[in-house]
Specification:
The protein is an alpha/beta fold. It is built from 17 helices and 13 strands. The chain starts with a strand and ends with a helix. Keywords: Glycosyltransferase, Transferase.
């Protein structure tokens, strides 16, 4: 087969597609991955052939314009579904101008995409190929819970998205996608999309040289704090909360791995013997050595911890992160705090519970075992051929 992959212009949407792309290539299929220019290096870094498309509009600029000042944060307001979706539609329009002509030349047998890549159903419709959606974690229900009938979709989806899909005669309702591949554990599901195939979540977060200290005994519990890529579009303001958390952790008898990206080390104050600051390490490499994780609730981060059986504290700040925090807490495999609840005392209490609480550790391990028992990407390939 020829299989065309595409994703929204977020690494967190691209990375979950990589294991399936690898599996298809290993089975002898021809794979191409179409992305905007900012993600081309990430595709090549994953060892996959890239197609650059949709050059021109900058997704982050479009997102900031739509949100008129920022995503939800401490003291902020929750963005509407229109504010979130419209930038994706703008990108999809630019994508279609490049990708539809390419697809008509290349003739893919299958189109695979994350649900936020709204160009995917357009391309699939244009070439008569089946559309497979590949989710990225706990899916917000503002769009997909209403994908039942065409009339319900038209009542609930943003007008800009409907107009774009109508121009390309994309079917709405249950015929929108032929198959949905979902690596999200049942316990963390907000919705169940039609034609859903549950699969194992295999973390892919890029690659890096393994540091020598990673596999050395820490001598005390290792607690990682990671804040995803939200600072890319929220700026330094988003780091206020994790910096307070690092300060609180430094006073505990733990080894702290602060994986906060390329931040000014001076923001962390005086160096502490038990705090190790790293620019970035793949969570798939780091988490198996950790006893607990603190994060902002990004779906990829949450599921990477689930796959490793690591209990986690989620401090949600933007978009759908509160949903992930709520579902994780309900599963028993983690705890959550709001940014306003973060104090030295609350961090000590919750982290101690993650390290010593038998119930939360058992729930995290049970989630990991259920994830490992699901079919992996290689086992999905025969279903995609049929």
């Amino acid at each position: 087969m020829r299989v065309l992959f595409t994703s929204a212009t977020f690494r967190s949407h691209l990375f979950p597609l990589v294991p399936l792309a690898w599996a298809l290539r290993a089975a002898g299929h021809d794979v191409r991955v179409a992305v905007q220019p900012p993600l081309v290096r990430d595709v090549l870094g994953a060892g996959l052939p890239a197609i650059e498309a949709g050059a021109g509009p900058d997704f982050m600029i479009e997102l900031k314009k739509a949100l008129a000042g920022g995503l939800e944060g401490p003291g902020g307001t929750t963005p509407s579904i229109e504010q979130i979706v419209v930038p994706h539609v703008r990108i999809a329009e630019a994508f279609a101008a490049d990708l539809v002509p390419f697809a008509r030349r290349w003739s893919p047998d299958l189109v695979v995409a994350d649900p936020a890549a709204f160009v995917a159903p357009v391309v699939a419709r244009a070439v008569g190929a089946p559309l497979v959606l590949h989710t990225w974690g706990p899916m917000p229900d503002q769009l997909w819970a209403d994908l039942v009938t065409e009339s319900e979709v038209r009542q609930n989806w943003p007008k800009e998205l409907l107009a774009f899909l109508d121009r390309w005669d994309v079917p709405l309702g249950p015929d929108y996608a032929d198959l949905v591949i979902d690596p999200c554990p049942d316990e963390l599901l907000a919705i169940r999309m039609a034609s859903r195939h549950a699969t194992r979540y295999v973390p892919y977060n890029g690659s890096a040289l393994t540091p020598s200290w990673l596999d050395e005994p820490a001598g005390r519990p290792r607690v990682c704090i990671s804040w995803g890529t939200t600072s890319d579009f929220m700026g330094s303001e988003v780091l206020r909360t994790p910096l307070r958390i690092v300060e609180a952790l430094a006073d505990m008898d733990v080894e702290v791995v602060a994986a906060l990206g390329k931040i000014d080390r001076g923001l962390l104050g005086e160096p502490r013997d038990n705090v190790r600051v790293v620019d970035w390490l793949p969570l798939s490499m780091l988490l198996p050595t950790c006893d607990a994780l603190i994060n902002q609730g990004g779906p990829g981060t949450v599921l990477a911890a689930v796959a490793s059986g690591v209990p986690q504290l989620v401090v949600p700040q933007i978009s759908a992160q509160p949903l992930g925090a709520e579902l994780l807490t309900a599963s028993g495999a983690g705890l959550s705090l709001t940014p306003d609840e973060v104090t030295a005392e609350s961090i000590e209490k919750t982290v101690s519970e993650l390290l010593d609480g038998s119930s939360v550790r058992a729930a995290a391990q049970a989630l990991a075992e259920r994830n490992a028992a699901r079919p992996d990407a290689t086992q999905l390939v025969p279903a995609l051929r049929s």
